[in-house]
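Model the whole thing, not chain by chain.
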Amino acid sequence: MLQNYIPILILFLLAAGFGLGVVVISMFLGPRRPDPSKLSTYECGMEVEPGARQRFDVKYYLVFMAFLVFDVEVVFMYPWAVRFQKLGLFGFVEMLIFLLILLVGYVYIWRKGVLEWE
Amino acid sequence: MNFQMADLQLLAPHIVVLATALLVLLAEAFCKGERKGYLAYLGIAGIVVAALLTPRLFGPQRLGFSGMLAGDGFAAFFYFILYAVGILTLLVSQNYLRDERFEHGEYYALVLLALVGMMLMAGATHLMVVFLALETMSIAIYALAGYFRTERSVEASLKYFILGGFASGFLLYGIALIYGACGTTQIYDVMAYFKALPALTSSPMALAGIGLLTVGFGFKVAAVPFHAWTPDVYQGAPTSVTAFMATGVKAAAFSAFLRVFVVAFQGTHVEWSGVLWVLALLTMTLGNLTAIAQTDVKRMLAYSSIAHAGYLLVGLVVGTPEASSAMMVYLLAYAFMNIGAFACVIMVGRYGQENTSLDAYAGIGFRFPALGLAMAVFMFSMAGIPPTAGFIGKFLIFKAAVHEGYYWLTILGVLNSAASVYYYLRVIITMYFKPSPDEPAVDGLRVGPSAALATVLAGVGVLYLGIIPGGIIKLAEQAVRFMG
């Protein structure tokens, strides 16, 4: 029973070993000449201004929640699209119902003014 | 995936309740006006339609959706418990929310969505569906617990959310291990696999899976030692939500607990019943002992709900069809008496002042005779004194335990039940025998037609089940026979 998991264990060890190994090897082999611009936070080559720790409008939170819903929706649709032919009419109707439920949520947040940005 | 139109019949009640929830949400978005209390009646109408579609499921088992959902007597019986919980909760909430200035449609939509999750839990015959349904229910309940946006309410919501998420992880890991051991997560296939391979009952992977599932379900039914969240969450949440959580979540979690343990894991009954024996005893004893020390009625009811989970676990330990049907009757009785008691707690409070301390109840029995009578009936029922529903529930469970030779558990359970009489009767004694102070904390009841109706319905339910329980007991016995 448990022997079946040995390949997974080996894969796990290999993956962890590779990841760690590369970091350790570059730690020993890589040349190291730090200067201030190399040590600074990288953001498109620009100087960081004025720092990331500032207040965000709470609306970002709502927009993000709305985004997440549609993001997950699309993730759900990919496997569905791959098997579309096999699933047939049933799969099509199922997906329509799923979209309808999401649509109700969308109409709700729209009416509640989440999408208005003043 | 093969799908037949007949499968839709099994899902019809869920679809109706879900559609009602979406309608309520749209009505909230499109209807003018701030006060949306009338949406509660739309929700009740939806539940009634679902209830009309349910009786035809009451019969021999039919599986649908590739064996993921059952339409059988067992599921149908639990659907009816949940309908009762849903309707009573909506009725109780309506005028409570108006008084607390929180009369929004979202509340009713969330209650209905949680109800869909609970119903799916009762009907699920696949561990993944159990998990999904549990999450559907829980996420709605997390939001409901924080609905009042006061500090305590939000604290309750956050505590429940974080601990609940953790418990879901245990449940999911348990399901994964069971899948690893059996190669399937369909409940009847798991049962068949355990039967075909007796050596599996000593496999560490299967046993670890069963253990983790015990933790996950134990959390949802508030069994010791997974109960730590209960008092704070029950006390901080809006009282109507507490009533809903204590009855609906418990009924749904026990329905899945029953189907998974008594059906899927029946081959390992010897292994898990010992663990649950200890949990049942701890849950009863700790719930009752801590409830005795409480001076706040809402918190006392929270600990009492832990104690009731303990009595119900006794039924699960026994694991016979007789015990399962006893648990179903008990859960129905518990729904009526607990929502009734919380309805009374709501009436005693007023806007901005919940009045849940026991002192506030001094003398209100004579000043408000109807409330006093109702509260007394519910407290007697919780204590398990005939002729109320609580007595019948406890009697059936302990009878099933004695038939299987669990004498010690029965004796300890009855002793616990006797100890619980102290704190239930203390409420009655405070109401009737303590003189009311010169400036009483409660100068009027917040009662509307819907709350009064809910209390009367709950009271009638408690007395009906207590005096003529024969019909319901017979239904529950049939329902268990159909579980397979």
